[in-house]
Design brief:
This protein is an alpha/beta fold and 199 residues long. Helices cover 25% and strands 25% of the residues. It has five helices and seven strands. The chain has a seven-stranded mixed beta sheet, sandwiched between helices. The model has no long low-confidence stretch (mean pLDDT 81).
């Protein structure tokens, strides 16, 4: 077989290369329970092809992991994406694994994070309790994004705030993790919230 330089790909794709004008970066973490849409959200909003660490779920996880109908893969380390806010400012997105047995990886993912998005599925609000508790313990500011699954129940904001035991200043927004514009709006809400905390 004749391999020439034109036959092989080395380095990142041209559209994935970091702009030379970039001079600052901030880190945001997308968190939530198993199967709430974190990988989908990072993939929807990232301007580069996202890095994912999804693995096929096997029978070894039966009785250990949550079992969601139709879900065949799970994140085992992180998801990674990037958004250029301006020519100089880059936003790095890190999606965490949702299964509790992988939560030890959160320590490194949260290092240096400016803030977080907690993605919530109203069909399983209880999987969000520990996630929010961990953020509060670490002092990481966050917003809550309700991923609007088609068959998920809808609740008034005050009911959700009470159920999740959220202080009044923490924003709660609706989100469709499949939609780039919807995910962008969630991140803008987080940026505005972080800005308000800095004043």
């Amino acid at each position: 077989m004749d391999f020439r330089s034109s036959d092989t790909v080395t380095g990142p794709r041209s559209e994935d290369v970091l702009p030379t004008t970039a001079s600052a970066a901030v880190k945001i973490v997308i968190v939530g329970g198993f199967g709430v849409g974190k990988t989908t959200m990072v993939g929807s909003v990232s301007e580069i092809r996202p890095l994912t660490t999804e693995e096929t779920m096997t029978e070894a996880g039966v009785g250990v992991d949550d079992n969601l109908e139709g879900k065949t893969a799970t994140t085992v380390a992180m998801d990674f994406g990037r958004i250029s806010i301006s020519d100089e400012l880059i936003l790095y997105l890190f999606g965490t694994p949702g299964q509790e047995r992988f939560w030890f990886l959160w320590n490194g993912l949260f290092e240096g994070a400016l803030g977080a998005v907690v993605l919530v599925d109203t069909r399983r609000l209880e999987v969000s309790f520990d996630v929010i508790g961990r953020l509060e313990e670490r002092g990481v500011p966050f917003v809550v994004a309700i991923n609007t699954f088609p068959d998920a129940p809808r609740y008034p904001l005050d009911v959700l705030r009470t159920a999740l035991d959220l202080p009044p200043e923490v924003p709660i927004v609706d989100c469709d993790a499949r939609g780039r514009g919807s995910c962008r709006d969630v991140l803008l809400t987080l940026m505005r919230y972080l800005h308000s905390l800095s004043l």
